[in-house]
Amino acid sequence: MTSISYLTNTLLPLHIRRFRPSLSTLSCSLASDVDPTPNSYFPKRGQTLELVCESLAFKGKGLCKVTQTGFVVLCDRALPGEHFIGRVTRKKGNYAEVTKVKTITPPRDIVDAPCVYAPYCGGCKTQNLSYEAQLRAKEEQVRDLLIHVGKFSLQHLQLHAVLKPIVPCRIQFHYRNKMEFSFGPQRWLPKESLQDRIVDDDTNENYALGLHAPGFFDKILNVDNCLLQSHPANKVLAAVQECWRDPQLGFSPYNVHSHKGFLKHLMLRTGRDVTTDQPEVMVNFVTSSYKPELLKFLVDKVSVFPEVVSVINNVNTSVGNTSVGEEEYTLYGKSSITETLRGLTFQISANSFFQTNTYQAEVLYKLIEDCAGVKGDDSEIVLDLFCGTGTIGLTLARSVRHVYGYEVVPQAITDARLNAKINGIQNATFVQGDLNKIDENFGKNFPKPDIVISDPNRPGMHIKLIKFLLNLRAPRIVYVSCNPATCARDLDYLCHGVVLCRKKRI
Predict the structure, then answer these.
(1) Which of the following is catalytic: 482, 487, 495, 501?
(2) Which of 18, 107, 133, 370 sits in a 20 to 30 Å window from 417, CA-based?
(3) 407: annotated binding-site residue?
(4) Of 468, 457, 456, nearest to 493 (Cα)?
(5) Known catalytic residue at 482
(6) How many angstroms separate the CA atoms of 416 and 394, rounded?
(7) Would you state the pLDDT for residue 239?
């Protein structure tokens, strides 16, 4: 029987068998003095409700339910235990979205958010919730998704101790090794700050460099310091903010509506020098065209920091808002930075995937090895699906016979092969290919694996790949996920089979 283990990027390990679904319930209060009509149970747009947030839904929205009907109400920035007044802004099928009008009773486990942007920024919506409460909320989210989407019963999850305690990170801030900031022609301000606005909309001072305002693709919240990224990266961000609006420099931020402008994104990546263990920072300017003479001032500005060892220019001429360019140029220093994980050295290029939390990546890879049950006698074959730059497969290669890695991004495969060479690993083969488009020939170029590692992006695995794994019948599968919703769906297929007709599963 195939054994399947699952890991999320919040490091919540579990072991899966065949389970059956069960139901859990949530409730909220609906005050009669707000709107006593029966229609309140199925609220309409503009209606005002008094609610109690019971838990956090995926992506951090507060979840309530109308007691009499179970109608789901979601509220951005509502926290568990918070008693509040909300106004319905949107109704979609079996749920409604509300905007918080006023807090009546503050939430449980509330703390002071250390970041000044926390009330408005979309990056840290629950920063004013204690870290311990955040961990509990994530455990609940994974558990509920396994029950309702994955069709596993709560009784069996508890009986077989499938859900293990979440593994907290030893640091809560400055842990991300990659941040992407966007340039924009007009900075976004919260409503309460609009009356303080004294800047002329037509001046460069209104330009923005920061993060997208929640719910908007075209509005940028200007950010001078981000508590998620490293201190050296924040020094670079501050240096760019200090000068890029100067009209004499001739910079123009990209406008997503008119498709005009030069500067699109500022991507900052942080690694470590393998010899000195000191930080290494890569600065990546994403622009709409290649104008190195125009960027020279910014390159000189940021390269004075000793931590900056690489300045890259990705040129993206498309009208889209992606940070990946069609062309890439090295304007200063190296074309990549390095990082060490579990005793191995990895080269990180501008657009290659690397676990964004280096501290937890160390823990995650150890959990993957434990869940895989590697014998360590150099006898096993590992199939590493969605291998990226090969980090997971290469950490296992030292204890197995051979690793076969597959990834769609050509640059990632190039990096994976380079990483294998750097670390003297010769028993790893990396192949570029789209795992969403496999055919009957997939699997003929490698022996049957003893261990399968799957680490897909947010959409999860394509049904073709799931059917391949069901027919493969590998003894062990480890599923690593950054999206518990699509992972729960895939686990349902892997553990309960794929429905081919009304009653038949494979």
Answers:
(1) 482
(2) 370
(3) yes
(4) 468
(5) yes
(6) 9
(7) 98
